[in-house]
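Model the whole thing, not chain by chain.
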Amino acid sequence: MTTDTMTPAIPVTRGSARSELMKQRVLAARWFLVPMLIALGVVAGWPLLRSIWFSFTDASLNNLYGAEFIGIGNYLRWTTLESGRTIYRGLLVDSAWWNAVWNTVRFAAISVGLETVFGMIVALVLNAEFRGRGFVRAAILIPWAIPTIVSARMWGWMLNDQFGIINDMMLRLGLISQKIAWTASADTAMTAVIVVDVWKTTPFMALLVLAGLQMIPRDIYEAADIDGVSKWKQFWRITLPLVRPALMVAIIFRILDAMRIFDLIYVLTPNSSSTKTMSVLARENLFDFDNFAYGSAQSTLLFLIIAGMTVLYIWLGRVNFEGGER
Amino acid sequence: MANLQLNNIRKSFGAVEVIKGVSLEVESGEFMVFVGPSGCGKSTLLRLVAGLEDITSGELTFDGQVVNALTPSKRGIAMVFQSYALYPHMTVYENMAFGMTLEKGHSKEEIRQRVERAADMLQIRQYLDRLPKQLSGGQRQRVAIGRAITRDPRVFLFDEPLSNLDAALRVATRIEIAKLHESMHNTTMIYVTHDQVEAMTLADRICVLRDGIVEQVGTPMELYERPDSMFVAGFIGSPKMNFMSGKLAETFNAPTVGVRGEHMVVKPSDGVWTGTVIHSENLGSDSYIYVDIGADEPVVVREEGGKKHQSGEKVNLAPLEGRVHRFDNAGKPIR
């Protein structure tokens, strides 16, 4: 294309021959980084270290500062009975925890999967030229702009078993024979949560993908037309590979978000073990059940799982955060 | 190898008509250049031939077959774009082979042979495994040409292929395109440019376009020696033709006369025009002298050799015998 490979803003230094200018640049760069590092340390690093510390103590809400170190007891402890049977306890053998992990992973996989497909379709439509495109682009962001609490409440009413518009419409259309308690019933609660989440975050996905699509020069599609490549093949062989870097970044953003899902589930399906996620469970233990140390252990494990998945994803997907490949 | 007929082709974008009825025949194996100032519709006309835009009205035939409704690939054309338009995620080999691998009926071996043959013609064989971003502009454009050759087209289209290259590379690539035309003498080529030097050096015939209308079609020498209008006279040739009108043209019995810079001579006395040298440029092999003789623009005289005239010097000018182009008030030639 017309733009050649971008030259990096800071030239590569060779060996020890660092010029005065280069030293100045590095120094300036460090000073610019300091405020961000301090902010990160205060709002992210310190709380994270605190919860990791609490997860190794017997802390409770009433007695945070008098907490004592108890080792890995919150994660796993065992007692051997006189009969010789060993009983394991702790987070790693807690079935409620693993149920929450499974719920979270299932939720993240299905909702991010659907959002990726729908987001791609919406982005492809928005990438086409048509009248009123600017308006549609702005309008599509509305679900994303509504605070989750509000949209969860709104959907809660729409999905209500007695008065909800969705039951009413489906009854009239003959799709269901009796009203369904979408959010309360264990069979449908997860579906309801996923539907609302997809509705809410598809626009975000669509805009990230759209940004990637707009990086693709139009002329190569003309070249493909001349090469006799069908529109369908153009999508799979040209669009998808070229939008992949943007798509991978969008997916990782969404996975990180989905793995921490809390507000939507807390409002839409409170206390349903079929949708309870890691965050919901951790909060319950931290504040409702006064198991502060145990909740901290769950938070820590949640952090480790997300961190592990992210690293795995970046490594497997060879995501390039440095920008496009072009 | 195809004979192209354009019959009263028109193209409108909304209410704006860009191509206003073009009729033209491009013979089989011919190298036709569309040239004209920017906005004259030359690129649009090429895109109509390619099938990248729909023809609003008129008929386009390849070897007698109407192709208006055919997709680009069905027309059997190949096109080289100004921006190269290479697939950035594919290697040079994949770029060149892409069209063929998706077509049915080509074996891997056949594709490889065709790609390699094209690569050899353009000396890009050593780059086959590289990505476009690892190549220079000139190499990329050679790959784009190679991709077009691999398609083995009936008609080869070039849309300002040299515009993104620097001056030295432009000349080198121009020569390669000329050689390519020699070695593919069966293939009809249409080449769009705004640069009259490319038009003159490459074309079998040139089609000069202006505001969506054909001004003149002819061989480079026809256009140079017998322009059909003041527009063509001014557009073809460098430096631009000098036009003198009114009193300055009286001697030649015409409202306006045109004389090319290379056909103007400086005389010690009794010239047709007299004026003052206002500037002179030394190009080494020759020099351009700008003389103010009272016309709207200074007259440019091209003299062989280095600088011989100083600014402020009075000079007499006269045209070479038989090299005066006379034009009427409508800008048409009087012969």
